[in-house]
Amino acid sequence: NAGVMQNPRHLVRRRGQEARLRCSPMKGHSHVYWYRQLPEEGLKFMVYLQKENIIDESGMPKERFSAEFPKEGPSILRIQQVVRGDSAAYFCASSLLRIPHRDYGYTFGSGTRLTVV
Amino acid sequence: EDKVVQSPLSLVVHEGDTVTLNCSYEVTNFRSLLWYKQEKKAPTFLFMLTSSGIEKKSGRLSSILDKKELFSILNITATQTGDSAVYLCAVEAVGMNRDDKIIFGKGTRLHILP
Q1: Residue B100 touches partner A, C-beta closer than 8 Å
Q2: Residue B98: predicted pLDDT
Q3: In degrees to the nearest 10, what's the CA dihedral of B43, B49, B50, B56?
């Protein structure tokens, strides 16, 4: 079991370009969560998806950000027209159930570090 | 607004010392509290606490939750340089739409000097 796979690990974009971040959950996990981590900040919740459905997007900026989790393939976090303030580490986590498992919580990927130049 | 506050924000101690990391929270509809260790990669799960007063232990690490006073502590005894990391506290709460939400603190950056 390869765990939660995120790619790319590092992504550099110029202002105004689009960034697409991918997250393949652990095998059998249908719940995916995206978090953003800014320097010196904790992980901030962005969006929670369950196969083809957005369950909670209360942490997503209203503009330029979108997320999907299609029936086949990885979950995608898409940022259009990136700005310098979007530079951060974006982590994806997956779980088997809607609630974290008592023995291993949610399983996180290694993150994508987005740098906007 | 739901919030999780960790203290101290950073801590430097010598190898062999014992450290206590604090996490206090204010959330509506608390479900559980989780501790993660984050080095330069994915956060790794340490503990999940749901009941007050029951200590969870794993090697030199232990944690306990106080649901009355709304806080948790993470203890690390006989610290080693490999314990250097950011320790994240997160609280799981039931959201407005009965969806579970995880709120993270800013973390405690622990540095162990050899």
Answers
A1: yes
A2: 61
A3: 150
Mutate to test the interface with A, among B92, B106, B108 (most CBs of A within 10 A): B106
Is residue A102 predicted with pLDDT exceeding 80?
A: no
Note the Cα B9 to chain centre separation in Å.
12
| Contact criterion met (CB < 8 Å) for A58 and B95 | yes
List the 96-115 stretch of A: residues with Cβ below 8 A of B.
98-111
A96 DSSP β-pair partners: none
Per-residue pLDDT of chain B (114 residues; tens, 9 = 90+): 788 999 999 999 999 999 999 999 999 889 899 999 988 777 888 999 998 999 999 999 999 999 999 999 999 999 999 999 999 999 988 766 666 677 888 899 999 999
Report the gap between the CA of B15 and the closest CA in chain A (Å): 24
- Classify B24 as helix, strand or coil: strand
How far apart, in whole angstroms, are the C-alpha atoms of residue A39 and residue A43? 10
